[in-house]
Amino acid sequence: MTELIVVVGAAVLSGGRLLAARRSAPVELAGRWELPGGKVEPGESPERALVRELREELGVSAEVVRRVPGEYALRAPYVLRVWTVRLLAGSSEPLALQDHDALRWLTADEVWDVDWLDQDVPAVAEVARVVWGEFSPPPPLPVPVTESGAPPPNPRSSNAGGAIG
Ligand SMILES: Nc1nc2c([nH]c(=O)n2[C@H]2C[C@H](O)[C@@H](COP(=O)(O)OP(=O)(O)OP(=O)(O)O)O2)c(=O)[nH]1
């Protein structure tokens, strides 16, 4: 049996808003939004991995607050575990330095305005529940159009405007 590899995801919170990051690579993930983070290295704790990844990817100094319940299956052998995180006093503002080409701070009302990676949707729903104290399900996916064969527009694709980095 293959060992699971933990990918740590950060629900970075500031002023009641959640930071979303748009991936720039690899090509199959580029343009979709995720929680910043990455793979835990051998011998590293998940919390240290989170702080390291946030420094590398966003240039921020951060501290882990608490684990968000759940473990979310990614492409095998990876699983995503999520923690809430806050920026330390004196930290730089996040910048899309590595792996991302845009960042957005999302309010509770805006959380489904970005096109999250499919596998992140349940994790983000849990973050929304934990952070904003409400169940905030994503909008339903459209029924596929069969007549013309044209793919329907994705209601979660609304990346225009408000992006930083
Ligand atoms: N960081 C992060 N990765 C995610 C999320 N959802 C998701 O499917 N992934 C995938 C993308 C990648 O295949 C894998 C994490 O890889 P990564 O490229 O972010 O990790 P890393 O920074 O350690 O990268 P590397 O050293 O292997 O280049 O998990 C998410 O919300 N955050």
Structural class: alpha+beta
Count, helices:
2
User: What quaternary form is this?
Assistant: single chain
User: Shape, please?
Assistant: globular
The main sheet comes to: 7 strands, mixed
Bound molecules: 8-OXO-2'-deoxyguanosine-5'-triphosphate
The string of secondary-structure elements, in order, is EEEEHEEEH
Helix content: 10-25%
Report how far the terminal alpha carbons are from each other.
Answer: 40 Å
Count of strand segments: 7
Q: Uncertain segments of ≥5 residues (pLDDT<50)?
A: 157-162
Strand content: 25-35%
Cα-atom Rg, whole angstroms?
16 Å
**Overall pLDDT confidence:** 90
Walk me through the structure.
- The chain is of the alpha+beta class and 165 residues long.
- It is 15% helix and 31% strand.
- Strands 1, 2, 3, 4, 5, 6 and 7 form a seven-stranded mixed beta sheet that branches.
- It has helices spanning 46-58, 121-132, and strands at residues 5-14, 17-23, 33-34, 37-39, 62-73, 78-87, 100-106.
- It is globular and about 55 Å long.
- Bound molecules: 8-OXO-2'-deoxyguanosine-5'-triphosphate.
- Residues 7, 9, 29, 34-35, 37-39, 53, 74, 78, 80, 99, 117, 119-120 line the site of 8-OXO-2'-deoxyguanosine-5'-triphosphate (8DG).
- Residues 7, 9, 29, 34-35, 37-39, 53, 74, 78, 80, 99, 117, 119-120 line the site of 8-OXO-2'-deoxyguanosine-5'-triphosphate.
